[in-house]
Amino acid sequence: MPIIQPPRLRNDCFALPSGVNWTPVDQAKQRLRNVLSVVVSGGHKISVSEGNDRILFSEIYAARSNPPGSNSAVDGYGFSGPVETGMQVLNLAPGRASAGAPFDGMVEKGRAVRILTGALLPEGVDTVVLEEDCTVEASRIAFNGPLNKWSNTRGAGEDILKGSPMFGVGHRLSPTDLSYIASAGVSNIEVFSRLKVGVLSTGDEVRELGSGALDWQIYDANRLMLLAMIRELGFEAVDLGLVKDERNKVRQALNAGAEKCDLLITSGGASAGDEDHISAILKSEGMLNSWRIALKPGRPLALGLWNDTPIIGLPGNPVAAWVCALVFGRPAMEVLAGGHWREPRGYKLEASFRKNKRRGRSEYLRARIMDDGRVEVFPSEGSGRISSISWSDGLVEIGFEEELIELGSKVRFIPYSEFLRPSYVDL
Ligand code: AMP
Ligand code: MG
Q: Under 8 Å CB-to-CB from 21, ≥6 apart: which residues?
């Protein structure tokens, strides 16, 4: 199949229904999921050995069965079963069957043949007795029955049946998937091209790491985090640098980014304030929707298009940028890359903390699992505490309606590893 390009995202795709004020997290995710579609080209043929972390463009069907033929699961003696209760004595046929050298010929009824693990069952053999259960003489064996037919054998195709579907479009391949596919005799697969994600930082006060910084200045703590995260997700990360809050500079950087990337991720300047140049320029020269999402930490999240390239504007605060990148950015990227929207699995654990929360918004607390299996949260909820995202192993998600967490209440803990590599598809 030739390489094909998907249609562009619609210009108004990020528009929220009118009248919506603070959008609940679940609704925002649902909405995002509905409007996003694949933006990368598909149909690239690659070898399965190159397939780890790639997203499938076409389905995979088994080219052969596994095992291709019925074989022995153990080292022992093969014969035609079943056999009854009581002592069995069988004469041995000359020769043997091994995995690398199948037995040539047929084993007569009432005889047995030496057979090793993985060896194809010779004609006339459907049952194998373990060598440990046999007394062996030069030309015969004895063992105790009963033994059912097919004992200690593996049936042809019991693992994979030739022609059966293995993986569908949008599946992201793991190392174990490669093994499974190879066993089914498939050597080439078709994948989507890797999503290229550009990352841009903005802010007059933000400085490049390694340069000098005055007291009012801070080092860029977002770009390296987001670039590293994108690489870890198997996407291509493109460093678009750091720009001042000046419209010309922002425009240039967005143009350059849109030229070479499939998605732009910015941090900072995404609110509606005076210095929020990302929002301002998208509104007047591109297409922007600021999503006011009922979540802490997080708002604002800007979604838009710049020269037809989707753009996700994350908050400047590194804690909020990290949380929004995990909750919205991660699944969004997977869909843009041709994959499925996947929700992370959460684990209900006992809280080692108390908390009062306002109804009507979701909260994500930086958390980790203690040695006793309970979950603890970072001592300060301040979103300025960048140390907290490094300290934590995941987030406790507190739902929209929840108000009170008592010591020992069950809370939903989502490990960062689950956000990054969700272990199931939530449809
Ligand atoms: P903004 O979203 O631009 O209003 O920024 C919110 C807060 O995050 C401000 O305190 C910024 O100084 C800070 N901030 C913005 N970008 C970065 C960055 N790349 N690294 C660290 N802090 C940032
Ligand atoms: Mg700013």
A: 292
